[in-house]
Amino acid sequence: MEFQEIIKQRYATKLFDGRPVPDAKVAELLELVRWAPSGLNIQPWKIKMVADAATKALLSVATFAEPQIETCSHLLVFCTDTDFAGLSEKLSRAMKARGIPDKIWDIVMGIAGEMAGMPPEDLRAWTSCQVYIAATYAILGAKALGLDSCPMTHFIPEEYSRILALPANLVPTLLCAIGYPADQPKPKWRYPVEDLLIA
Amino acid sequence: MEFQEIIKQRYATKLFDGRPVPDAKVAELLELVRWAPSGLNIQPWKIKMVADAATKALLSVATFAEPQIETCSHLLVFCTDTDFAGLSEKLSRAMKARGIPDKIWDIVMGIAGEMAGMPPEDLRAWTSCQVYIAATYAILGAKALGLDSCPMTHFIPEEYSRILALPANLVPTLLCAIGYPADQPKPKWRYPVEDLLIA
What we know:
2 copies of one chain form a homodimer. By secondary structure, the first copy, chain A, is α+β, with helices and mostly antiparallel strands. Chain A is 49% helix and 15% strand. The first copy, chain A, has a domain at 3-83 and 130-183: NADH Oxidase (3-Layer(aba) Sandwich), CATH 3.40.109.10. Chain A has a 4-stranded antiparallel β-sheet, sandwiched between helices. Chain A contains 9 helices and 4 strands; from the N terminus they run ααβααβαααβαβα. At the A-B interface, helix 1, helix 2, strand 1, helix 7 and strand 4 of A face helix 1, helix 2, strand 1, helix 7 and strand 4 of B.
């Protein structure tokens, strides 16, 4: 599907029909998401996939009973890996293993070192923002693969962490419900392009 | 262009050839970016477009002399609007003007009201994250339109604010340089899909 068409057709699906998305299709989606870019190529994201009804029922309570949670096929819980030191070490090793030139390694790890000194809340915010790039790949990728999706941030992260038994460094940041729609898209609206620009 | 192809071909362009992107093409790109989704549809982004050489030269200094800044055609400075109260009021008025049903208005403005009570640093982080969705639309949209791009966060926001005389509520968050490439894409790498998932 053309990108312009994907953008037009994508909408935040409020109700899914409960049909399961085949595993092969889910794998295709993850393969698209995997290629999302991130600052330093640090890839500070992890996804918890939830497809079973019992877990969805628990998560629904932590999502103010929004109907997407229990009617979607798969709920992708995008988490931010807040262990910046661990991510940096992994990146360093991966670049070495791939034979990235020392000059590039020095620049990237130099910036990573600077960033490690940022105020923790700023570093955490930056890291979470990268996760949104991957989630944007997911919502656009879903449409490209003939699926619908709903990104959501109105949920209780602490409850998600508890229910999904997530390690402390992985913080639920954004949900992406995917599946087949049981609603109709409402007319989309945005502010005009003039509002987008700073004169 | 197919979405899968866009993802494959997109790369962080390190050097552009300086040719200007025609205004009509830039307008097409903004029209794609405009349709980015955001939580509550609050659209907390503004873009400062920089195409003149003198301003780029000043910004280059605040971007550690990365060659993208002076060689790109247009530098899109994506800013976060940190005036959440102002954004909420604008959203409220826009929904009323569009005849959005009261039931939906109540839900959306109820959540906006809750969010206004979040710790300011958390609200600011959430808002910045939405801006990344629009920036992701920009980098993918650029490729869809036959352009190349480079997203960048390694710059001095305070210097950008000063040079561009930005209002205090608009905080430079991420740059997207667009233009025609003068480099060759390096092989892209990412962690395997197993690393993406939480078991």
